[in-house]
Amino acid sequence: MELAGPPCIAHEAVDVLVVGIGAASPRAASVLSQALELPIETVVDALYRAPARLLAGLPGPDAARLAAIIGTLGVEVEVIPAGAPIVRSPTLDLAGELLDPARADEVGQVLGRFLGMGPQEALDLLLTPPGVILGSVTEATVRALDAALPAGSARLTASRPDEARFALFASELSSLQIGVLRPHLPVDAVVTPGGSATIFDLGRAEADLLWRRLKAPERVQVVNQAFLRFSLDLTAAPATGASAGALQALAGVPLEDYPLICNALPVTVEVGIAFDAVSARMALYAAAGLTVRAEMETFSHVGLDILSARPEALAEVGLPSPAPLSTAPMPRPRAKLLRHRLEAAGAEVLFAEPAQ
After folding, report:
1. Residue-wise burial string across 101-120, b where 16 or more C-beta atoms lie within 10 A, e elsewhere
2. CB under 8 Å to 88, separation ≥6 — which residues?
3. Looking at the chain, which terminus has fewer C-beta neighbours within 10 angstroms, N or C?
4. 212 CB burial (10 A radius; 0-12, 13-18, 19+)
5. Tens digit of pLDDT for each residue in 55-67?
């Protein structure tokens, strides 16, 4: 904790500014609310939407003493001249992805402490696409969480909702609801016989309007496009030429595996691509003579075929024995983690893509 600003003298009024949540836990909000006799909403706003003025118009020595006490909770604070202007940061929505399944338990512990919930409950947020963790926080909070997580274990994506573009996913719509949606559909969009449709690139106001008018929260989902992830499937490739080297450079496929890839098309060559990066990635493949298609993986489900496993390994993850057995389809992040845990226990496991 640092005390910034000019030296405090007794008769000069100063303010206590929260610079960031730092290493504080959510419990700090309750502690400060009671100790400072402030509404909990005021304290939460200051902690998660820093920089923010927490206390105003205090004598210098009192402010310095309180700032030091607040700092013991892990909160980053400064003492500034009374009434000094503060530039409030724009608020962000935050989503996350688990990158290293070997560190899933550690990630759950860290995220749980940060959010004030149990480790498994916190980990479930990352395993439930699109992985939304927090809403209406500032960059200081995002930096604090990123610093707390084990390096390389997870990826955070922050987005300003007032500037973001949104995707709407609808299913099982009635004819009346389809009529409401149709004027907003792109020219080439299709409504399936089951009443399903997807619209990309909506502004927040338009997305909110459609959400309200469709009146079907269980069948309509609006998602910030920054949180969507796609995979690229290689569907066509020349048998000879420079494309083998291009595929190695773009997707890390070894040159010697190129003939095998060409004989097994379609093959997934990239995963976890952000929405805004898809077009550019596809263009790079096209320039190399390779044909790829983008598939949204955010809401895809996959099951596991467990060919062999010890009964105790299956019991540990809540599965019946004996193997072989197959699981029901589940969100892809959950399937990846479950496969990792089973294989770490010596099991032989394959992904089982659901039938189209």
Report:
1. bebbebbbbbbbbbbebebe
2. 49, 51, 52, 138
3. C
4. exposed
5. 999 999 999 999 9
